[in-house]
Amino acid sequence: MVSRVIPVDPFDLVIFGGTGDLAQRKILPALFRRFCAGQWPDDAQIIGAARAEYTPDAFREVVAESLRSHAPAQSRNADALNTFLQRVDYVPLDALSDTAWDRLAAKLADDRVRAFYFSVGPQLFGQLAERIKHHDLATPKTRIVVEKPFGHDLESARALNATLAAHFSEGQIYRIDHYLGKETVQNLMAVRFGNMLFEPLWNSQYVDHIQITVAESVGIDGREEYYDRAGAMRDMMQNHLMQLLCLIAMEPPAKFDPDAVRDEKLKVIRALDPVEPHHIVRGQFDAGPSGAGYRDTVGNPRSTTESYVALRAHVSNWRWAGTPFYLRTGKRLIERSSVINVMFKDAPHSIFGADAGRHANVLSIRLQPNEGITLKVTIKEPGPGGMRLVDVPLDMSFAEALGSENQDPPDAYERLVMDVIRGNQTLFMRGDEVEAAWAWTDPIIAGWQARGDVPKPYDSGSTGPGDAELLMKRDGRRWQGINP
Ligand code: NAP
């Protein structure tokens, strides 16, 4: 099955922070892959902007090197690579200064879609928005793309929303959460709302509980200062896991349009109960074969920042009353894996007797690695003799199901950057969603600070602190393996 490529309108995309890690490793390779897929119109260009005094040619060389590393298959096509590089330009520019904006303006066309990607530190987001407006670079077809983190707490997120709103309408602001660009996340909506099979069962009557795991095997890698101020709660839970929770728990929107979807997600966040302190486990990784312990890594021997958090959340509404949502995320865990497990209830009565054991259906939605969906169903173990039951997976790995050209599903950034150009905000967070997520997160963090909470140590390369297992065990449940 070949996916259809619909070309976008002509565009100018300015990447502030074009020389940085995110731009070089994710954004530019994503744009190149879309270029190779034929999604670019003839009239489209990318302009990198950062303080480094590159000439356009020197910047192109940097980009070429990154593409060879991060889009190796496509960059082997020398013609494609050279044609793409001709569409790449560069302007040295300091976001904190008023010089050089006229040079940037001179490179932009009046009538094209104009997107400004803020791939710089969050302290520059407000300044950039102000300067784009002040230097008259905003047109009716202008969009701004704002990276994470969007604020540090509710107050700072509100302040940033207010600054952006002073210069741009909500319809022009694209707050990125790259989890929403993952193919499986969108498939979650297709599975839920495109099939009759699941929706009647998608509630507390049939679902025992839901587990959302975002496990990383890496540590903090060059982000020590930021991470020690943020921790897993701010860095992952408030945004990525919250967004996944919303997509699992939300009511069917009337249509698949940006505000209808985001209205339903917002209702979920607003229906979240405050989390009881004994329903949260915080952890900090110890030293292990893959490196130093957390405190040595961040160079802060007294740090009480968590590199792991697990919690039990409740969505207090008609559909989910009584169904817990267990969420966990951490660094330096045994595997890199993001998976949502919808754990259905046992059949109300087993006609096969106690010896047949307990069997419940599990719908696993794997975001990474090996994106796909698995449904565990109970069948009879083959062979003569008694009626022995066994759980087997009905596996829908997208690569297998959809053919070889889907072996490598598009990176989330490919989808999201093209959505910006198309003007489709469905997979981007709205300002009120971000604020509601912080309003839920802030009291949890304030509670830790008030109690002087210290995270529990856990072994690097493990599944996290033992208390996270207890969180489940107390409820008579257990985590599914990190990599099912
Ligand atoms: P980075 O590697 O430190 O790059 C920062 C970029 O900003 C560089 O190009 C830098 O170039 C430029 N810059 C810094 N100060 C500037 C100024 N005053 N004016 C203009 N440009 C300036 O950071 P990054 O990892 O790419 O992250 C960028 C943003 O994406 C951050 O908000 C981060 O939180 C977010 N993010 C990153 C990742 C990731 O995987 N890297 C993932 C999710 C979100 P010059 O020094 O030459 O100016």
From TrEMBL:
Main EC class the enzyme belongs to: oxidoreductase
InterPro entries registered for this protein in UniProt: G6P_DH (IPR001282), G6P_DH_AS (IPR019796), G6P_DH_C (IPR022675), G6P_DH_NAD-bd (IPR022674), NAD(P)-bd_dom_sf (IPR036291)
Record-linked Gene3D superfamilies: Dihydrodipicolinate Reductase, domain 2 (3.30.360.10), NAD(P)-binding Rossmann-like Domain (3.40.50.720)
GO BP, one annotated term: pentose-phosphate shunt, oxidative branch
Top-rank taxon: Bacteria
Pathway field: Carbohydrate degradation; pentose phosphate pathway; D-ribulose 5-phosphate from D-glucose 6-phosphate (oxidative stage): step 1/3
One Pfam family matching this protein: G6PD_N
Record domain Glucose-6-phosphate dehydrogenase C-terminal: where: 189-480
Region (Disordered): 451-484
Occurrences of domain Glucose-6-phosphate dehydrogenase NAD-binding (ranges): 14-187
Chain residues that bind NADP(+): 51, 148
Cellular component GO terms, alphabetical: cytosol
Keyword Protease: no
Keyword Aminoacyl-tRNA synthetase: no
Active-site residues from the entry: 240 (proton acceptor)
EC number: 1.1.1.49
GO MF entry, a single one: glucose-6-phosphate dehydrogenase activity
Residues reported to bind substrate: 178, 182, 216, 235, 331
Keyword set, alphabetical order: Carbohydrate metabolism, Glucose metabolism, NADP, Oxidoreductase
Catalysis: reaction(s): D-glucose 6-phosphate + NADP(+) = 6-phospho-D-glucono-1,5-lactone + NADPH + H(+)
Function as written in the Swiss-Prot or TrEMBL entry: Catalyzes the oxidation of glucose 6-phosphate to 6-phosphogluconolactone.
Family the entry assigns: Belongs to the glucose-6-phosphate dehydrogenase family.
Name this protein carries in UniProt: Glucose-6-phosphate 1-dehydrogenase
Species annotation: Ruegeria profundi
